[in-house]
Design brief:
By secondary structure, the protein is α/β, with parallel strands linked by helices. The chain contains eight helices and seven strands. Strands 3-2-1-4-5-6-7 form a seven-stranded parallel beta sheet, with helices on both faces. Helix 2 links the parallel strand 2 and strand 3. It starts with 7 loop residues before the first strand and ends with a helix. The structure holds NADP nicotinamide-adenine-dinucleotide phosphate (NAP).
């Protein structure tokens, strides 16, 4: 089956890291972009930089805190109105805060769970409302390799939130199967970004450009799921799933 052209792409969390670089790489491929995040100054700078390089790309930016759930629907609908259609939505906004459970940092773990899961749920609802109405659309959910297993220490809640995102994506895929709506779930390994700039042990980490190129390639192919970059994360993913827990936790650093 030929993959449809997805001209207009909405990306949440586009003010830094993977979201910002996805915007640059999708623009280079000629896509129009709807970009949102809380730091609108950074979105405006990004818009100016992309427009200077790709004057034919249409680009709109809006402020969005994904924890303001009503606003998620308002902003997604407004972007649709701007462009007429939204062909692809990338649920990317995310938070990496966290502490071992029971150590007094419920606030940090709750923030991560709310942003990464309930925020993603709101974005998925808002995207699907539009896709069902259009009878077309590609939903892309950014999970993580940490979703493969329960993870110790500071990433326990983060990993659980990313596993939840992956299950949400699979459930939606089962729901829309046989319709023109498609769903991809992306499991990135460590890719350089603000989220991990202070992380000391990030095995197999790659540059933002290289990591995002692998994401963009998988997204454009509309793969149902992709571990990125494929090397070493496809075999590492298999190992993580099947190794006994003491070995699995060592593999993730
Ligand atoms: N980098 C990696 O190694 C890696 C690996 C696996 C998965 N991921 C996932 O990739 C996604 C992007 O992360 P990143 O690595 O690019 O980190 P990042 O550089 O910290 O970017 C996170 C983005 O999310 C946005 N964001 C955070 N909280 C938000 C909120 N409440 N409302 C709206 N936007 C919010 C931030 O924008 P504002 O602060 O401006 O709102 C920022 O644009 C995340 O879902 C992350 O879990 C990353």
């Amino acid at each position: 089956m030929n993959t449809p052209v997805r001209k207009t792409i909405l990306i949440t969390g586009a003010s830094s890291g993977l979201g910002e670089e996805m915007a640059r790489q999708f623009a280079a491929r000629g896509h129009d972009l709807a970009l949102c995040a809380r730091r609108t100054d950074r979105l405006e700078t990004l818009k100016a930089s992309i427009t200077a390089r790709h004057p034919d790309v249409r680009l709109e930016v809006r402020a969005l805190d994904v924890n303001d759930h009503d606003q998620v629907f308002v902003v997604f609908r407004a972007f649709r109105k701007d462009f007429g259609t939204l062909d692809r939505v990338v649920v990317n906004a995310g938070l990496g805060k966290g502490a071992p459970l029971g150590t007094g940092r419920f606030d940090a773990n709750r923030d991560t769970a709310m942003t990464n899961f309930v925020g993603a749920l709101a974005q998925t609802e808002a995207a699907l409302e539009i896709f069902r109405d259009q009878d077309a659309g590609h939903l892309v959910m950014i999970s993580s390799m940490s979703a493969m297993r329960g993870m110790p220490g500071t990433v326990t809640t983060y990993a659980a939130s990313k596993a939840a995102v992956a299950h949400l994506a699979e459930g939606v895929r089962a729901d829309v199967m046989g319709t023109p709506i498609t769903v991809s779930v992306i499991y990135p390994g460590y890719i350089r970004s603000e989220m991990n700039e202070k992380v000391k042990n990030a095995p197999f980490i790659v540059s933002t450009e290289k990591g995002v190129a692998a994401i963009v390639d998988a997204v454009e192919k509309e793969k149902a799921s992709a571990h990125v970059p494929a090397w070493p994360w496809v075999p590492v993913g298999q190992a993580l799933k099947h190794l006994p827990l003491p070995l699995a936790r060592k593999l993730m650093g």
